[in-house]
Amino acid sequence: MLSQRSSESAPKRLQARLVVRLVHAASFTTIAILLHLFKIPFPLAPFLKYDLAGVPLAVLALTSLRDSMASLPVFALGLLVLGADVVGALMKVMAETSTFIPLALVYSKSARGSGARLAVIASVAAASLSRTIFMCALNYVVTPYWLVWARWAESLESAYRMTVAIMPYVAVFNATLAIPVALLAIATYRLLARAGVLEAYKR
User: CATH classification of 2-201, choosing from 1.10.8.60, 1.10.1760.20, 1.20.1250.20, 1.10.4160.10?
Assistant: First the structure.
């Protein structure tokens, strides 16, 4: 009788855990969308703007990389609703993805076999390097065509010259944004873990 009750309650516990994880993912994604409303222009290139939308996405990635990836379409849709163009929304999604994937992977591996401080340093460095390199490459490919489409450049050749000219600013911007995002995400993740908020993610 006891084993029968246990077997019957197992699916209910699993269902409850899935509901909690869904609520967590929805909450983190909603917070990310709202944080995108608050922007600070990058002093060296005001058309680039800092925001902390990546922090809740990175926290979600540290708890479950699968859940964070699943939340990206909702995040992109939220950006479009807020008025972002399709290219801008996709670039933002790719920027945050290139930040939280290496952050989560490196942090989970280094936290197991080394000290907490080394895990933070390694994961933050990986996130910053990944975002900087990936976004520079992506901007080099996408931005010239966007400049021509938006009529900021008369030809593709001039658009590439403009893109190369702003590339140092793009690199500095992404590097300096990835570091605080990664640090805040790790701090928030540790705080929530200690508070028992992330119990649903424990196996």
Answer: 1.10.1760.20
